[in-house]
Each structure stands twice: as structure tokens, then as C-alpha cells.
Amino acid sequence: MKTQKFILLLILLIFLYEKTQGQSGPQYVIPFTLRNNKTILTVRVGDSRPLNIILDSGMGWDGLLLFNPALMDSLHLKNPIQANLGGGGGGNASSAMMFDSSGFSIGTFQFSNQRIVILQGESFRKFPNDGVTGHSLFGHYAVEVNYNNQTLVLHKPGELHVDTSWVRIPLFFRDYNIPWMNARIVINDEQPIDIACYIDYASSEAIELLLKPDQKFTLPAETSDYYLGRGLSGDIQGKKGKITKVMIGPFEIKDVVAAFTTAEIRSKQPGADGIIANNLLRRFNLIFDYENKVLYIKPNSKFSEPF
To answer: How far apart are CA 65 and CA 47, in angstroms?
Structure first.
């Protein structure tokens, strides 16, 4: 009798194990923290101290970009290459040292054949986080972001199966492996305005609307001056103001605090009307599926939080 109970228990455990794997097959689960509307991963390079790394959809290559030049000595990397990196801001590109064929780990998960770039200037030395990564995850896996339990699940290519609780938002790609999507905005009470946006998952804003000669919108009646932050090419200034709503697929996010900044300074992506950022995206659980050019979304417990 005891033997039969043991066999039944074993069968049940095997069944439960297979259910946890799901139709998506084996998965890699990575915890994260949400800090200042940024998704932060704990990363190590070799036996380095734990590095606080921002997950960034704007990072279009495999590897890490590290902010602090003081990390150079502790990481023991070999064969450096001098490089210059441009980005947001109106100044010159940032100088950096680049190391190819390196690696890093997140928990027990290893990423090999990575490029590690360390900035050499002082502008980012005092940043609260150590750097960014992006394409190492987004470019090779379908990345499921669950804000309710603060985990990422990496699904291998071809092994993601999504149920009907998710809403499918098409993505498209232009330069630098950066994902774009279409959205609509209402600034005051006008008809919704169609805009093309790219996703900056590292931005703490909700939405950034770009000021340019052919912009499709007017500013809200009330705005205030606003410092958006520092890009690789310098500081980014702008304005902020509340807009009536942002519309993504069937969802309406109301009373959104938007940032407004000059396209020439903020964005290196021609044709963009705006930038969808993480203070908006964190109100959904997400699955980034670059392979099939889809973002799956469904509202989570943070959906109705005020801005």
C-alpha cells in the first residue's frame, strides 16, 4: 500500500513539474527590482561585486554598457579598444573602452560572447546604477515581465505560447534593433492623434513627446520646465505637462504626465513622434517577442495608479 502511494505521489510530482514548464518549455526566471521606474537586474562580470544594471530596450547589441570608469581595474578585462558612443543630448559623444568576447551572469544564468563597454568620462560616475543591458535578453528570448512578483521569464525562441488574456501589440524595427509601436494620444479634448513611438524601457518617464517642425500635437495649456536627465551626448532639457490620455491597443491610460523635449536633442531615431517609457509600461505585465515583432500586454495591479 505504501509503495502504491509513493508511486502515485511520484506521478503527481512529475505532472506538476511538467505543468510548471508549460507549453513554452524550460524557462529561465530572473528576479528584478523596480527602482525609479527602472527595471534593475543584479549582474556580475566574473567575480565582480554585484552590479545594478538597468534593462534597456535601446541597447541594440549584446553586452553591458558600464557607467563608471573606476570599474576598469576590478573587472580584469583584456584587450581594450578605444571607442566613442553617441546618444541623447546635444554635446559630443562619450569616450569609452570596449572589450569583446567577454561574459557576464545574472544569478546562475550565463551570457557569453558579450561586448562590455566602460565609459571613461566623469559624467555618469555618480549615477545610482552601474550600467545598462538589453539585446542580450530581448534579442535572443521572448522576455516576459511580471511586475506583480518582479520577475523576468526568458522563453527560448519558438517555445512561447500565449493565452487569450494577453493583448497583442505589433512591433516594428528600424535602426539599432530598437522596437517601435503605434499609439494614440489626446492632449486636451481633441480627437485622438496617431503617433509612431519607439520604446525606451530605461526611461523613467511615462511618455516623451518630441518637439519638431512637423509634430502632430500642441502642448498642453500648462507646462513647466523639466530636466529629463543625461544622455551619452549630454543633458536633456524639456517641459512636462498633463495630457488627457494615452491609448495603446484597446487600453486608455488617463491623466498622464508627459515630458516634451526637442527631437534633435533627445532622439536619434528619425520619424519618431514620441517615446513610450517605463512609467507607462509598468502598469502592464509584458511579453517582448522580438522574433515575431509583437509586444503582449495585460493590465496589472498598478494600472490605475495616478501619475
So the answer is: 18
Coil, strand or helix at 285: strand
Q: How do strand 274-277 and strand 193-200 relate by DSSP bridges?
A: parallel
CB 295 within 8 A of CB 244: no
Half-sphere exposure of 54 (CA within 13 A, CB side): 23
Q: Do residues 197 and 272 lie in contact, with contact meaning Cβ atoms separated by under 8 Å?
A: yes
Query: d(Cα 283, Cα 59) in Å, to the nearest integer?
Result: 22
Q: What is the spatial order of strands in the sheet that 27-31 belongs to?
A: 27-31, 151-155, 142-146, 284-289, 294-299, 167-170
Handedness of CA 34, 157, 58, 245 (dihedral sign): negative
- Which stretches within the chain are classed as H helix? 2-21, 72-75, 135-138, 263-266, 278-281
Do the Cβ atoms of 46 and 210 come closer than 8 Å? no
Cell of 185: 494620444
Count of residues making up the chain: 307
pTM across the whole model: 0.84
Give the model confidence (pLDDT) of 5-28 as tens digits: 433 433 333 333 333 333 344 468
